[in-house]
Automatic annotation (TrEMBL):
Active site: R273 (proton acceptor)
Lineage: Bacteria, Bacillati, Bacillota, Bacilli, Bacillales
Family statement drawn from the similarity comment of this UniProt entry: Belongs to the FAD-dependent oxidoreductase 2 family. NadB subfamily.
One GO cellular component, as annotated: cytoplasm
Protein name from the UniProt record: L-aspartate oxidase
Pathway stated in the Swiss-Prot or TrEMBL entry: Cofactor biosynthesis; NAD(+) biosynthesis; iminoaspartate from L-aspartate (oxidase route): step 1/1
Catalytic reaction list: L-aspartate + O2 = iminosuccinate + H2O2
Species this chain originates from: Fictibacillus arsenicus
Length: 527
């Protein structure tokens, strides 16, 4: 096993990881680790843009209220206030770093509108290619000053006694490297990839969250999975149709051509995502119909939405008829590793930023285009915390810890499901509409029995299945615990939000979870 040392190790090369690296590299020796090529991330795929209070008639209070309303007031009020107040500063920094945001002839930002926003406040680039433009600029900036290790799958944290000292990674040839660090930042993205109907890039398996869980960090809000209303539906699901299309006049219609959001919500097609997705789900599953995005009234479509135009072309969908077939799918995960204003987790020396973190800003349902914003804002916060001298931490741990963590174990992998099976079970029992009976079935299928692997000894394909099944089990069991409906979490058997659940989070920790899988998952490091 190779051992590499750095002051800061960042797992993940999306917007959150790279912005943290940008700030930290001024003073620290930083390594960014990604399991794929640096361009492979959900950040790269982001279409609509970043929400920010830019318009002179807009206020942070309005952005704040839109965020709370979309989140069904499950949001953390202080963190949310901090988030929305930072919006214009994020846009300034990204512009300075070379992101070519779309502007009018006077140089003012062109501001789009998306679901749940009462004002135009979505700053975008390249029409619907905001993520690509941001990531290209960030990659350009950090390439010379930060060491980037691609093709390294982070498997386990090196943690003991409530402290984190680094991370073990494995490459495709099976070589293990221990990256020791004073500060370890998880920026590994979310877990919408545990569903088969998803907008996410391949690999959104929640592995960073699972790693943190096994090491003893607290997780929160895992039951809140956002289903985006408009994934492109051809033979299979072929990508996302940004909400900005509805912001420009696109209307959701059923097979008869009737608008389906009339009378459902004052914002109609631009209602928050949970509401629109449930309406489409009803039309498709209960009425046995189809849903289309009618774009006949969207002017200059190909220029405004070049990415969506290409996506439709690749899927064999002609835009001539002005109707794009759509279906909802898992898009964003509000749950994650519980963090504070400085990205700190419950383990000392371990931080989490971006979609893998649960800062509390999204509540029970994220407001559109608040995710890139969250990644940028809290990556900077975390970096600045680490850079502040008084928080300097000395790296000290015994080598016996390494040997202990890296010891082999006996296992039988009968209980481990194939990825397709995990995704199918999640679609069927833990999707837009859930109930106790289905969730219990899923829970039973996801139990890992006597499977107790020393993960570092396993091939990456098996580690990935283990992580996905762990993530699926954590999600389903959190869904079971929340016996109410709120935002993206809709229970047929408890269809209303209940007072006793207001502002209550379901916290998961391997140190407290009672189940067999929790003990087994912990066994590799914590026994
Ligand atoms: C199609 C699409 C469109 C979207 N549009 C928007 C939008 O317009 N506005 C908005 O605000 N949000 C949007 N989102 C959501 C937003 O893009 C993501 O929430 C955000 O980019 C997440 O950033 P991140 O840095 O946390 O993680 P990601 O961008 O997902 O990056 C995760 C990184 O972690 C690495 N990684 C993960 N696990 C491991 C491991 N075990 N070992 C090593 N490396 C690992 C990956 O390789 C990757 O580099 C969209 C999402 C999708 C899928």
């Amino acid at each position: 096993m190779d051992i590499v040392e750095a002051e800061v190790i960042i797992i993940g090369g999306g917007i959150a990881g790279l912005i943290a690296a940008e700030y930290l590299s001024m003073k620290k020796n930083v390594i960014v680790i990604t399991k794929f090529d640096i361009k492979h991330s959900n950040s790269y795929l982001a279409q609509g843009g970043i929400s920010a209070v830019i318009d002179k008639n807009d206020t942070w209070q309005e952005h704040y209220m839109d965020t709370l309303q979309a989140g069904h007031f499950h949001n953390d009020p202080e963190m949310t206030e901090f988030l929305v107040k930072e919006g214009s500063k994020v846009i300034d920094s990204l512009s300075c770093w070379g992101v070519p945001f779309d502007r009018n002839l006077n140089g003012q930002f062109l501001l789009g509108k998306e679901g749940g926003h009462h004002r135009n406040r979505i700053v975008h680039a390249g029409g619907d290619q905001t993520g690509k433009k941001i990531m290209e600029a960030l990659i350009r900036r950090i390439s010379d000053k930060v060491r980037i290790e691609t093709g390294q799958y982070a498997v386990e944290l090196l943690a003991a006694n409530g402290m984190c000292y680094g991370v073990y990674c494995k490459d495709n040839d099976g070589c293990v490297t221990l990256y020791k660090s004073t500060h370890t930042i998880l920026a590994g993205g979310g877990y919408a990839g545990i569903y088969s109907a998803t907008s996410n890039a391949n690999g959104s398996d929640g592995s960073a969250i699972c790693m943190a869980y096994r090491a003893g960090a607290e997780l929160a809000d895992l039951e809140f999975v956002q289903f985006h209303p408009t994934l492109l539906k051809s033979e299979k699901i072929s990508g996302l149709i940004t909400e900005a299309v509805r912001g420009e006049g696109g209307v959701l219609v059923n097979s008869n051509g009737s608008p389906i959001m009339d009378g459902e919500h004052p914002l109609k097609d631009l209602a928050p995502r949970d509401i629109v997705s449930r309406r489409i789900f009803d039309e498709i599953h209960n009425q046995r119909g189809s849903v289309f995005l009618n774009i006949k009234d969207v002017s200059d479509f190909e220029n405004k939405f070049p990415g969506v135009t290409i996506l439709c072309g690749n899927a064999g969908i002609s835009l001539d008829a002005g109707l794009i077939p759509v279906t909802p799918g898992a898009h964003f995960t509000m749950g994650g590793i519980k963090t504070d204003l400085f990205g700190r987790t419950s383990l000392e020396g371990l931080y989490a930023v971006g979609e893998c973190a649960n800062t509390g800003v999204h509540g029970a349902n994220r407001l559109a285009s608040n995710s890139l914003l969250e990644g940028a804002v809290f990556a900077k916060q975390t970096a600045q915390y680490i850079l502040s001298e008084k928080n300097e931490r000395i790296l000290s741990f015994s080598f016996s810890l390494i040997q202990e963590s890296y010891s082999a174990g006996n296992y039988s992998n009968d209980a481990l499901l194939e990825i397709n099976d995990i995704q199918e079970i999640m679609d069927k029992y833990a999707g837009i509409c859930r109930d106790e009976e289905g969730l219990k079935k899923a829970e039973n299928k996801f139990q890992l029995g006597n499977f107790n692997p020393a993960l570092l000894d396993q091939p990456i394909a098996l580690i990935k299945r283990f992580n996905m099944q762990t993530m699926a089990w954590l999600t389903v069991t959190s869904c079971l615990k929340r016996k109410e409906s709120r935002g993206s979490h809709f229970r047929r058997d408890f269809p209303f939000a209940l007072k006793e659940w207001e502002q209550k989070k379901i916290i998961r920790s391997v140190l407290r979870d009672e189940s067999f899988i929790a003990k087994k998952a912990a066994a590799g490091i914590l026994n």
